[in-house]
Each structure stands twice: as structure tokens, then as C-alpha cells.
Amino acid sequence: MIEAQQLTKRYGEKTAVDGLDFDVKPGTVTGFLGPNGAGKSTTMRMIVGLDAPTSGSVIVNGRHYARHQAPLQEVGALLEAKSIHPGRSAYNHLLALALTHGIPRRRVDEVIELAGLGTVARKRAGAFSLGMGQRLGIAAALLGDPQTVMLDEPVNGLDPEGVLWIRNLLKALADEGRTVFVSSHLMSEMALVADHLIIVGRGRLLADTTVADLVREAGGDTVQVAAQDPARLREVLAGPGVAITGRSGSEELQVTGLSAREIGLKAAEHGIALFELTARTVSLEEAFMNLTRDAVEYHGSTTVETLETVGSNA
Ligand SMILES: Nc1ncnc2c1ncn2[C@@H]1O[C@H](COP(=O)(O)OP(=O)(O)OP(=O)(O)O)[C@@H](O)[C@H]1O
Ligand SMILES: [Mg+2]
Fold this sequence. Notes:
Elements: E1 2-11, E2 14-24, E3 29-33, H1 40-47, E4 55-60, E5 75-78, H2 90-100, H3 105-114, H4 130-142, E6 148-152, H5 160-175, E7 179-184, H6 187-193, E8 196-201, E9 204-210, H7 211-217, E10 221-227, H8 230-237, E11 243-245, E12 252-256, H9 260-269, E13 274-281, H10 284-292, H11 304-313
Parallel strand pairs: 3-7, 3-8, 5-6, 6-7
Antiparallel strand pairs: 1-2, 1-4, 8-9, 10-12, 10-13, 11-12
Helix pairs in contact: 2-3, 3-4
The protein binds adenosine-5'-triphosphate and magnesium ion (MG).
Magnesium ion (MG) binds near residues 40, 41 and 152.
Keywords: ATP-binding, Nucleotide-binding, Transport
InterPro entries: AAA+_ATPase (IPR003593), ABC_transporter-like_ATP-bd (IPR003439), P-loop_NTPase (IPR027417)
GO molecular function, one term: ATP binding
């Protein structure tokens, strides 16, 4: 369990984290989402005491991280995967960490196996690829068999097999009743692994919600229908919670509040011919963009005008 209360971090004039209140609960994967610079890494650093809050507080498993007797066994964190002595082997890196906490060698072998590092464990960590470094960082996070696991952008640099591995790993950890907190700026990736979402923009909380609720709030599921007699179809579909739109004179209708199956059955019942019946789920990426549009700090400059301005300055 992670509990943040009015958590705030300022760097001079810049407020990186701005009065965040949230809980991350055990037994589910919680995604921590936000555009670049939203304050995700800063929040995660404060959770493990690498940065001190300017005001507010955050506690893990009931107390401040630094107050835990054996922090590695409480919270496993991946923040900067490549914070490893480059000349040390993966095995020795993990063994050194284990020795600081009285963790047996056998556990080092276990996490090496778990992270799929068996064949490279004796090689210098400095020569590791980005993906290998990421796996080593995850192995280190799991070393103490912690109740709470926190990973900052864990899929960065992983190949498709690695991405799938992370997804299954996070779900398995949550199923064991652990608290799993994972950041990403990719909604599509989070949608596949997280049940709960905490979304931030410019350091502020934008949403604390489930994936299902986010879709519903963003407009829910719409079904696109084309019918021979759209006016008649409107009549037979009308009811509480059902919304139907469509241009007059057009065969096409957009229906929310009924499934494609329900619409198909109603149409058949009343002998109305359908030409199209397509369920259109609002993309989560769209929902995320809508939420964070005003909170994006680093927009790509795509307009011709901007390019011309840059050109004339050069
Ligand atoms: N040590 C620091 N000194 C000054 N400013 C900082 C420092 N660390 C972070 N910031 C600023 O705080 C803001 C939040 O940064 P943070 O790294 O937490 O964002 P993020 O959500 O992790 O972004 P990304 O998706 O790019 O990783 C940014 O504007 C960043 O420039
Ligand atoms: Mg970050």
C-alpha cells in the first residue's frame, strides 16, 4: 500500500509535483500515467526517499520508506535501470545488494532465472543492452521478495517478448496480493496490464479511476448502425439510457447504451434490414489525450508556421 497526501515537490520556481492525493492498493496493478515531465519519476523518487517532499507526505506499507528496517523487503523499485557499477557482473551486483539485507544466495539465483538473465549473469553489466539492463533492474527490485513493487517505465527498451514478460510478471505479482505501481506515458501499454489508473499532468492529479470507467466517461461504447429504415429503427431502439444520433436523411445512426447484439436482435424482431453493425470502442489513447491535452508541456511543433519561424531564426 502506498499513501500520498498533498504530496508536493518544487525545484525553485518549478512545481514538479503539486498536491497529489492518492492511494495505491494491494492486489491490483496500478498504472501511473502522464505526459513527459508530468512528475511521475519525481513522485516515485519521493516514495522511496530519494527526494524529500517540499510539503505533504507519502508512506509505504504504513511508514516512511526510510523508517523501514529492511526497505528492500518492503519496496522493490526500478527507477534508473542503469545505476549499476559497469565493471561488476549482474550476479555480483545482485549478490552485493542481497548481502546488505541478509538475503540468501539462493534468492539471487532465483531472480536471475526469473528475469531471464541466466546466460549473461556472469558478464559485465556495463556491456548490457538497454533491455538487459532493464531486466537486471527488475531482478534487483524483486530480490527482497517485497510486498510493494514500483517500476518507472519498465517496458522501455524491451523487445516484444520482454514486454509480454513484464505484463505477465506484473499481473502475477498483483495476483499474489502485492501492491504494484508502474509508470508509463503509453496509455495503450497500460490498458493491457493495469486495472487502476492514476493520471497526472503538470504535477497535478487528473484522474484516479479504472480503465473501464475511463472508457465510459470518455463517451463509452458507440455502435455504428446503417439501416434501410433508420427512422423506424430509432423508434424501436428508443428507451432509457439509450442515445441515438445521425444526420437526417442518412442511413447511418450512432447508438450508445445498447450493445451491437441487442441492436441486431431488435432490428430482426421488427424486420428492419441492417447494412452495418459495428461496435466502436473509444480508444483509451484518445481518452488519455483528451484528459491530458491541456497538461502537455512539451508539444511537438507540427505547424508550418512554427517551422517557418524556426527557419527564419536560423
Ligand atoms: N532534479 C530536478 N531539478 C529540477 N527540475 C527537475 C528535477 N527533476 C525533475 N524536474 C522537473 O520536474 C518536472 C517533472 O519531472 P519528472 O521527471 O518527474 O517527470 P516524468 O513524469 O517522470 O516525465 P517522463 O515521462 O519524461 O519520464 C519536469 O519539468 C522536470 O524538468
Ligand atoms: Mg520519468
